[in-house]
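# step 3/5: fold
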Amino acid sequence: MDERAATIMRPNTGLLLRARNACVDRSGVRRQAGEEWLHIGKGSYLPSVHEEILSIVQGKTLTETTALHLEAIRNFTDLFEKNRKAGEQWMVSSDSTENYIPGPHEKFLGLVDRVVLTPSQFCVVLDPWRDGKQMLGQREIRRGQCSFFLHPGESLECGIQDVFILTTEEALLMTANEAFKDEDFDVDRKPGDRWMIYGPKEYVPKVEVSVLERRRSIPLDENEGIYVRDTKSGHVRAVIGGTYMLAPDEELWAKDVPQLVLEKISAQSNPKDWMEKRRAAPLPIDMTRVVAYNVPHNSIVQVYDYKSKKTRIVFGPNLVMLGPDEQFTIIRLSGGKPKRPNVISTVFLGLGPDFMTDIVTVETSDHARLSLQLSYNWFFDCKAGDVVDGAKVFNVPDFVGDVCNAIASRIRGAVASESFDMFHKNSSSIIRAAVFGINRETNEIRDRLTFPSNGLVITSVDIQSVEPVDTKTRDALMKSVQLAIEITTKSQEAAARHDAERGEQEAKGKLERQIIDDKAKAEKERFNLLALQAESAAIESTGASKAEAKAQAAAVQIVGESEVKQAQFKAQAQNIAMEAELLAQQSKQHAELEFKQQLNTIEVGKMKQLAEIEVDKFQKSVHAIGKETIAAMARAGPEMQAKLLKGLGLEGYFLTDGNSPINLMNAAKNMTGSTV
């Protein structure tokens, strides 16, 4: 016998009970021995003798954004009166209840968050549930704005995705995963078909398709391009300039370019440094872009097309753009001192003028071995734009090594026939004659050496240094040079001493001669002084008479000049008076002319005004008499006319037909005169 206390049940909790023996619980349900069930209620609960409390189960609070994921441990009927089978999974959300307490036959797997999609989002649900059944192996597109819980067994493919928003410069490359009817284009699609969806638009892919790639239009300058490969035929072409959008059956093709070409393209070497070995780290280059190279000024590039088996020559400055099957001809030249093959690698050749330096070892006829450092000035005899001459430049792969070997052979042959002393004295002429040769007609050294195979021209040879190879020869040469320097120094000292003595004797002779010349000049000046003294005495005696005569002559001359000037002034005064009188008469005549003109103008104006007055008077008289009266006057006899005229105050009249012109001024005057 034991004591049991009642268990207080708090809100959102339940008691997990188990039957010890077969019994009937408080709800009236018959329980079998060992059966477990969940009791939910409020207040206190005191189990019966046939019941035992296993645990207190805490309930789960459900919100709008969470749901419970449950699994049935065995077959049973849940709280919502639904039959559940063992292993079945389901969800309980806030739409069914706010709080849920899992029973003994349920397993809580976890909380499920609500999936929320905005208007610009979508998702792909794998194995979706439809009409209470799970569609295994199928996919379902769901686009916002919406929210939902993923049912057991459902999952999101690639999570929540943004709706594809395409601009006018964008497109989507699509492929069909299965056969379906594309209603957007009214086309039957087959698995593997490819097509493009062009913007501007919003696009959500269907379940039957997949988005392979999002593409953008590629803007290209007139000096830019891309390599495009047709995935069906495999043909590769270069698209240059404009804006290009890849077709569904096209893709960008990466061109395979040698590493040396990549280095040259990224470095864009200076044309003056083209013969130097520069190995800078190449910049990253997009090989789907058309390979372009700026050919430096006064340079040349050879491009070989492996498909058409043809070459093309490009002169700088210019931009070379390689086709899909074209490659630069890589040139490997000798370098270093002395020259070693394959030291310099480049894609272009400078046409010169430039120079190259080489070290040549020669041996004289007396077996003295010498090391010569020589510099050759050269250029290619090739006109810019001449493709034939340009192709000839590339006939010799290593023109530097070939030229240096040829010139070194000539120099060794020429030096071998000369002794050391002779070569040491005439090294420049011997080497120039060996390199350029001698013109048989003029017997002079030629000014250039031309290689007809590639048009290379050597214009000059500079001997930078001559050093003996053998140590004994070098010591002997140093001794001979020192001895020559001593001899030269002594000879210069003797010549300087001799020049000093000779200068001293010449100075003494010049001094004595100058003394004699000075004495002769002094005697000559003394003679001149005596002559001047005699002349001054004679002048002094005759000076007074000459001065008086000169004064009288000057006075007479002054009087004559004054009279002449006076006569000139009088003539000028008369001229001025005559001009003034003439000017006055002209002014008077001009004034009289203007006065007469003004008087005539006034008179004419007066006559016009009088005529106008008479006309106005006549018009008023006619108006006063009237047209009918004048007509009667015309029909009346002469006597009546006289009376009428007298009544009108007219002494005469005249008639006209209106067509013939009449001078009213003269007519009026004649009428007036005749009346008087």
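# step 4/5: annotate
The longest strand covers residues 218-230.
# step 5/5: archive (pending)
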